[in-house]
């Protein structure tokens, strides 16, 4: 089978630039030396560009997980372009196809089923499409003036933010070459591979607490490297959620920034998967694993029956609690509701919540017993 043709510009950016980075940066460090200002600019550019890919390219434009003020969208468009990961239009189109056809060897643009190298960067250095870009799945973005402005002036943005700006900052406050090598060259290479790890390693290495229907994984290390994108199994299960790490302690700086922005009116309509959806997904995965464990034990039929019974009870408790939770919240808004009736609803809500807690404890006890047998 004939290989797709190489794309020279991408080969330069993705192959030759890393070679330049690992040679020029150490040479300059030993022969001249980098100042603290040089390093601070490298870190600042890295943080801004990585966040712009996570919050802008990914959660805002690819998944429409929230609405953002014009200034925020413009900021993400400029600094997302600085990562040289293609325009918003191209990036979002590929990413939406990835979610729609995940793991399909032919239709997923960076399918993990084709191996680490392909999903990490091999898919980008060859023209696998063999034709013009198809933007039929991003018609909503075609109507976005900021997206189309960035698409039109993408090359200019790349040159200004990656070359002219670091050189100017370095010339004014330190050394032009020092800032350029760290904030331009090295930063770009590092951010590329951190981002690419989500397409490759996050489909190979990690856990699957929410779904095993595709190869996506949750991985804390990758989450740290990518500002929260490493909770990839959750993201593939609930792609419309503006969060990737849903617990308050989950390392997801993008979520934190977007939340703070919502307090001051810069973002709005932040979408979240319901607690019931998340709990049910986790429970289903635990149920599958428990059944697999039970099937290999003595008296497998008894254990399997016990697992199924506990699963059904826990599921019913969750659904009853979630349904009543909506009624309870609605009652709190109803000023005309009688005090007695409100008290009864509050008591019923507390009972259902207590039952969920009990069923969860019983379920965890059962899965612990299975693991110990």
What does this structure look like?
There is one protein chain. The protein is mainly alpha-helical and 373 residues long. It has 2 domains: 261 residues, no CATH class; 98 residues. Helices cover 68% and strands 1% of the residues. It has 15 helices and 2 strands. It has a two-stranded antiparallel sheet. α1 crosses α9 and α2 crosses α3. It is globular. The N and C termini lie far apart (51 Å).
Strand order of the largest sheet: 1-2
Count of folded domains: 2
Counted by DSSP, the helix tally is 15
Cα-to-Cα separation, first versus last residue: 51 Å
Beta-strand proportion:
under 5%
Helix fraction by DSSP (H/I, runs of at least 4)? 55-70%
Q: Classify the secondary structure makeup into a structural class.
A: mainly alpha
- Strand elements, count: 2
SSE run:
HHEHHHHHHHHHHEHHH
Overall average residue pLDDT: 91
Radius of gyration: 25 Å
The dominant shape is globular
Query: Which segments are poorly predicted (pLDDT under 50) over 5 or more consecutive residues?
Result: none
Largest sheet report:
2 strands, antiparallel
Provide a brief overview of the structure:
This protein is an all-alpha fold and 373 residues long.
Keywords:
single chain; mainly alpha; 2 domains
Task: Show the helix and strand layout.
Layout: H1 8-31, H2 36-62, E1 67-68, H3 70-81, H4 88-100, H5 116-125, H6 139-142, H7 145-152, H8 154-173, H9 176-199, H10 220-225, H11 232-237, H12 253-263, E2 267-268, H13 275-294, H14 300-333, H15 339-372
Antiparallel strand pairs: 1-2
Helix pairs in contact: 1-9, 2-3, 2-4, 2-9, 8-9, 13-14, 14-15
């Amino acid at each position: 089978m004939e290989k797709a043709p190489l794309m020279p510009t991408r080969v330069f950016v993705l192959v030759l630039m890393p070679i330049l980075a690992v040679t020029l940066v150490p040479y300059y460090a030993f022969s001249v030396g980098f100042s603290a200002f040089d390093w601070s600019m490298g870190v600042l550019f890295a943080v801004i560009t990585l966040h712009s890919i996570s919050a802008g390219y990914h959660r805002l434009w690819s998944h429409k997980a929230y609405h953002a003020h014009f200034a925020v969208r413009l900021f993400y468009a400029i600094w997302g372009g600085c990562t040289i990961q293609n325009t918003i239009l191209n990036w979002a189109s590929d990413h939406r196809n990835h979610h729609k056809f995940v793991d399909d060897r032919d239709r997923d643009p960076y399918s993990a089923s084709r191996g680490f190298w392909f999903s990490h960067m091999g898919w980008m250095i060859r023209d696998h499409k063999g034709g013009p870009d198809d933007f039929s799945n991003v018609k909503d973005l075609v109507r976005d003036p900021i997206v189309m402005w960035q698409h039109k002036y993408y090359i200019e943005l790349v040159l200004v933010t990656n070359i002219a700006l670091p050189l100017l900052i370095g010339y004014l406050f330190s050394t032009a070459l020092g800032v350029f090598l760290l904030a331009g060259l090295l930063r770009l290479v590092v951010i590329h591979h951190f981002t690419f790890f989500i397409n490759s390693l996050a489909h190979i290495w990690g856990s699957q607490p929410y779904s095993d229907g595709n190869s996506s994984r949750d991985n804390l290390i990758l989450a740290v490297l990518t500002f929260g994108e490493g909770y990839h199994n959750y993201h593939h299960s609930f792609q419309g959620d503006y969060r990737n790490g849903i617990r308050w302690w989950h390392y997801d700086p993008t979520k934190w920034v977007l939340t703070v922005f919502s307090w001051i009116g810069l973002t709005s309509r932040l979408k979240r998967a319901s607690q019931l959806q998340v709990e049910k997904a986790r429970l289903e995965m635990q149920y599958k694993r428990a059944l697999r464990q039970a099937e290999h034990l003595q008296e497998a039929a008894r254990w399997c029956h016990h697992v199924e019974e506990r699963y059904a009870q826990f599921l019913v408790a969750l659904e009853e609690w979630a349904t009543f939770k909506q009624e309870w919240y609605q009652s709190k808004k109803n000023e005309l509701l009688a005090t007695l009736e409100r008290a009864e609803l509050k008591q019923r809500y507390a009972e259902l919540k207590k039952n969920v807690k009990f069923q969860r404890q019983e379920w965890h006890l059962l899965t612990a017993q299975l693991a110990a047998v």
